């Protein structure tokens, strides 16, 4: 399969997991990595921002959303304080999708570099 077709396939199938500006910036790096790392790129499972929002709404006061993002310390603090008495939980409802996309970007950069 031609590299540009692989790049298009990757971008189409994973666009909801990233900010559009991040994909535009990372596209050249992804294209360079396709030759050697295509099987790895296809097998990465990214976290779904919408699902993380649902988790945050229903279990955010227990810190589950932060644990799923790999932020163990924040998860423990959120659990102990019951979501910062609810304030941290509500703030996370607005931030969690962006945090999830940032985590996905970091995971992708780790693979392509």
Summarize this structure briefly.
The protein has 113 residues and is an all-alpha fold.
Helix content: over 70%
Shape, per Cα inertia axes: elongated
**DSSP, total strands:** 0
Order of helices and strands: HHHHHHH
Largest beta sheet, briefly?
none
What average pLDDT do the residues reach?
A: 92
Share in β-strands: under 5%
Organism: Psychroflexus maritimus
Transmembrane segments: 50-69, 75-96
Protein name: TM2 domain-containing protein
Subcellular location: Membrane
Structural features, described:
The structure is a single chain. The chain is mainly α and 113 residues long. It has one domain. Helix content is 81%, strand content 0%. The chain is built from seven helices and no strands. Helix 3 packs antiparallel against helix 7. The longest helix has 26 residues. The chain is elongated. The model has no long low-confidence stretch (mean pLDDT 92).
């Amino acid at each position: 399969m031609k590299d540009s077709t692989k790049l298009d396939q990757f971008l189409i199938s994973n666009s909801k997991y990233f900010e559009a500006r991040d994909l535009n910036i990372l596209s050249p790096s992804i294209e360079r990595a396709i030759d050697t790392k295509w099987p790895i790129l296809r097998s990465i499972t990214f976290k779904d921002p919408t699902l993380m929002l649902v988790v945050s709404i229903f279990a955010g006061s227990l810190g589950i959303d932060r644990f799923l993002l790999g932020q163990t310390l924040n998860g423990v603090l959120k659990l102990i304080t019951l979501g910062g008495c609810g304030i941290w939980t509500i703030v996370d409802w607005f931030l969690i999708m962006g945090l999830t996309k940032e985590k996905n970007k970091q995971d992708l950069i780790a693979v392509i570099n």
